[in-house]
Structure to design on (398 residues):
């Protein structure tokens, strides 16, 4: 059995230490770096041991759909970072979102969410849940009065994302959690844009946190992954039984990528945010740019709330060009360093035109309401030299 080495795993240490050592398990070979346990099953010394394992009488792994040593390292490291009691990794961010909701929401329940959500999350909430008899209320996430009205009757779940994609709106996690708890709702926060480095939803009152680990956690464009974190009660009574039997399991190889990604997460996110702040400032000075949105700036419409619940802004900058969609496309096409791609949180700077890509399935009315215009672009700032990035953006704006 590959046992958790509590001393080497730095259980009681600070974030930087936990990101490098959290959950570390070493095999009998005493490897320095985390091993990849690329196996589906495990063997037992006897039939009795196998029987005992299935009855939960002896500890150990059974099958990689349930648990696997490399995946356990990733889950423990994330659990320590997030300050959560328990966690379960999944094959993608969407598998995490889907499992978090499907594991406990049932027919007749009421679910509340803001309209400004990642497209696939909106699909689950707007299209899938109602098919199973779940009533859904969508609100403007920045308007507490709308939350109050929606949460005036028994509700089983609130699902929210903050800052939101792509307009970087902020939802007040503490205020919404308080309203939600009064009517019995479990609050699930999609923390992809903020990352655990800047925002700790559980400390703010939320009950469950979900991630697309594909984004900042890998941060190097190598694999998909996801994770759900929450209380022991939630993970053991709802999430684990559901996931174990429906199979959104993460590959051990991808878990290993994510474990190695976590080692540099804080460094990358801080540096990418430094770059993002400088780029936002540069863009705000350009006559070709109508509006710059970055949660770390004083001109963000909810700057105060952003400061209250996030340690820093974001690695993302959204901005609206002073021009048509055609001119916006010309700007994207002229970029030579920044790549056109809908991924985010990557070491490489990536830019996307949300209205024709990530949000192309959203209705025109809702796009207008959310401020997703034809000239809005979302820039995920990477680790390149910031002066090179500014030169590239500057030339393309000309
Ligand atoms: C990318 C993303 C997801 C989905 O994650 P995948 O790993 O692509 O499945 C969910 N929520 C947000 C906010 C995202 O950015």
């Amino acid at each position: 059995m590959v046992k958790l080495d509590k001393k080497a795993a730095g259980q009681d240490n600070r974030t930087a230490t936990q990101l490098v050592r959290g959950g570390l398990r070493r095999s009998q070979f005493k490897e320095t770096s985390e091993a990849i346990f690329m196996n589906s099953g495990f063997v037992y010394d006897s039939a009795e041991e196998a029987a005992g394992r299935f009855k939960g009488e002896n500890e150990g792994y059974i099958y990689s759909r349930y648990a696997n040593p490399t995946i356990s390292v990733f889950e423990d490291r994330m659990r320590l970072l997030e300050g959560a009691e328990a966690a379960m990794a999944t094959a993608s961010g969407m598998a995490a979102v889907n499992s978090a909701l499907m594991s406990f929401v049932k027919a007749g329940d009421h679910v509340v969410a803001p309209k400004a959500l990642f497209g696939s999350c909106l699909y689950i909430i707007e299209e899938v849940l109602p098919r199973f008899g779940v009533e859904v209320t969508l609100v403007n996430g920045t308007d507490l009065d709308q939350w109050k009205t929606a949460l005036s009757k028994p509700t089983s779940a609130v699902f929210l994302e903050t800052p939101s994609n792509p307009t970087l709106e902020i939802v007040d996690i503490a205020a919404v959690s308080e309203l939600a708890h009064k009517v019995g709702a479990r609050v699930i926060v999609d923390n992809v844009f903020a990352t655990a480095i800047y925002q700790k939803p559980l400390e703010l009152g939320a009950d469950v946190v979900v991630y697309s680990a594909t984004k900042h956690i890998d941060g190097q464009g190598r694999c998909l992954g996801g994770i759900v974190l929450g209380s022991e009660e939630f993970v053991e009574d709802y999430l684990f039984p559901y996931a174990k039997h429906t199979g959104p399991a993460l590959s051990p190889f991808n878990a290993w990528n994510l474990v190695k990604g976590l080692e540099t997460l804080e460094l990358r996110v801080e540096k990418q945010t430094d770059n993002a702040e400088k780029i936002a400032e540069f863009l705000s000075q350009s006559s070709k740019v109508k509006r710059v949105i970055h949660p770390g700036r004083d001109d963000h419409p909810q700057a105060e709330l952003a400061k209250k619940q996030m340690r820093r802004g974001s690695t993302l900058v959204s901005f609206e060009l002073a021009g048509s969609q055609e001119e916006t496309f010309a700007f994207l096409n002229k970029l030579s360093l920044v790549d056109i791609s809908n991924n985010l949180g990557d070491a490489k700077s990536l830019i996307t035109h949300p209205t024709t890509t990530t949000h192309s399935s959203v209705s025109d009315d809702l796009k207008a309401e959310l401020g997703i215009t034809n000239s809005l672009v979302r820039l995920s700032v990477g680790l390149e030299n910031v002066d090179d990035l500014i030169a590239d953006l500057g030339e393309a704006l000309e």
